[in-house]
Amino acid sequence: MEGNERKGRIGSKAALAVLMMMSVTTLGFTEGAPDATKATEASIAIFVPGVVSGSPIYELLVAGVQQAAAERPGTKVKTVEGGFNQADWESKLTSLAATGEYGLIVSSNQAMPAIAASVSQRFPTQRFLLLDGELSGNPSIFTLAYNQREQGYMAGFLAGLATTGGVAGANAAKKIGLVAGQEYPAMNGTILPAYTEGAKAVDPSIEVDFRVVGNWYDAAKGAELAAAMIREGVDVVLAISGGANQGVVQAAADAKASVIWFDVNGYAVRPGTVIGSSVLRQDKAAYEQVKRWLDGKLPFGTAVVLGVADGYVDFIQDDPEYIKAVSESARASQAGLVAGLKSGTIKLPLGGNPGSK
Ligand code: RBF
What we know:
The structure is a single chain. This protein is an alpha/beta fold. It folds into two domains: 13-146 and 282-306, Response regulator (Rossmann fold); 148-279 and 317-352, Rossmann fold (3-Layer(aba) Sandwich), CATH 3.40.50.2300. The chain has 13 helices and twelve strands. Helix 5 (89-98) packs across helix 6 (112-122), helix 7 (148-166) packs antiparallel against helix 13 (328-343) and helix 9 runs parallel beside helix 10 (245-254). It binds riboflavin. Riboflavin (RBF) binds at residues 49-50, 55-57, 86, 109-111, 132, 181, 184, 186, 216, 240, 242, 262-263.
């Protein structure tokens, strides 16, 4: 009886206000409680910290949850966009938990575990499935993160191959770029260093130009940053800036430079300009973990990190646009890296990460 348990433990003013609202809408607790209990068994809310459109990682999240729900008749899914004001996320997540309607709240990004942990103190029966973030030991939360050192390294290795002649039109300067939406620990501590590490494995003299949009939507700013770095000699840009990626691609296409896509297959976004895709199987992860929850088997309190060898991080090599854009010898080198990561002969563990492989 999750709904009743929750009511028994509530103490804060906010929660009291919610209970008062519930009593108005349901004409009293006795009638409201059974409904809430029924709903928690097969109702899922997806809390998108940002907006879905334009952010590959969120599009995959929603697709995976919806697929799992579609396979279990009676499972309801509601998607709530938290918007781009990150200061609002905790209160929006609190409101969602306070409804008591969702047995599971699913979300994704590195900031969410701390926010969900805070919400779970007030709503201890609310369960959370959080992808692309890591926290263990909270009995309300299960997290699944990716080995983004591998993901960043594969992008950097291809960028290194491209800037040293692996794509037609590469200039003489050995410079590659990365345009990020914002700075955050996984970006500054893992993705950017791994991108640099991968490029330098091709040629240690390669330099990386790192620029930050400051949000996840401003395509004009993304274009401006990409155009500026291209003017200074960059010929390959990794785009990790959500909706601003469209500006990065436009600027690169205008200047006949190349883009590497992240999280999802992006070759079709701009054929000839997007020359690589270093991806996460976030849709697969969301699908599988939601099914586990529906089966009552999601191990809350634990955290996993999955990588290339597990099948959750990959580089798309069989797309015709990749084959067209990247030289045969560069593709052979890239294939060697990906195969080594898959078989385990090449290892790129996440340093200092207890759950890493
Ligand atoms: N990635 C996006 O594509 N769109 C976003 O709106 C977005 N917002 C984020 C907000 C925060 C606070 C953090 C830490 C990351 C965000 N990311 C976003 C990045 C995402 O979690 C992931 O690191 C990248 O997609 C690379 O896999």
